[in-house]
Amino acid sequence: MALEALADLAAIVTAAIAVVAYGKYRFDRRTATARLESALQTDSNTYMDELIPRLRMTEAEIFEAARASKRLQIGIDGGPASIAAKLWFRLSQ
Q1: Nearest to residue 74, comparing CAs of 46, 50, 49?
Q2: CA dihedral of 44, 86, 38, 63, whole degrees rounded to 10
Q3: Least packed by Cβ within 10 Å: which of 28, 32, 61, 64?
Q4: Residue 22: what pLDDT?
Q5: In what helix (H) or strand (E) does residue 35 lie, and over which residues does it extend?
Q6: Is residue 30 a contact partner of residue 18, using CB atoms and an 8 Å limit?
Q7: What letter does residue 84 receive in the DSSP assignment?
Q8: What are residue 84's DSSP bridge partners?
């Protein structure tokens, strides 16, 4: 009987931890998107290599935040032989 109660308690604690972790993930994602959008308020085209030190985010975090935003556009400045030289980001009007 005590073992069943302990198992039930463990299941409840596990579910609570999962809910808190998911909430933190969503909050961090929304915060990163807001930081990216606010950094792009003043500049028309901002390149990835400029955003990384300004936002203190990795490329993957910037891409994830850009994908989560409905107001953001991503473009490519082509280099020689159609090789992408730089990626730029801007807010759509």
Answers
A1: 46
A2: 140
A3: 28
A4: 98
A5: helix 2-39
A6: no
A7: E
A8: 78
State residue 33's pLDDT score: 94
How far apart CA 18 and CA 20 sit, in angstroms, is 5
Which DSSP letter does residue 81 get?
Answer: G
Q: Where are the domains of the chain?
A: 2-91
In CATH, the number for domain 2-91 is 1.10.10
Counting every residue written for the chain, the total comes to 93
Q: Cβ(48)–Cβ(87) under 8 Å?
A: yes
Q: What residues pair up with 89 in beta bridges, in sequence order?
A: 46, 74
pLDDT tens digits, one per residue of 36-84: 999 898 777 888 888 899 999 998 999 899 989 888 888 887 766 556 5
The DSSP string of 6-33 is HHHHHHHHHHHHHHHHHHHHHHHHHHHH
Amino acid at 71: R
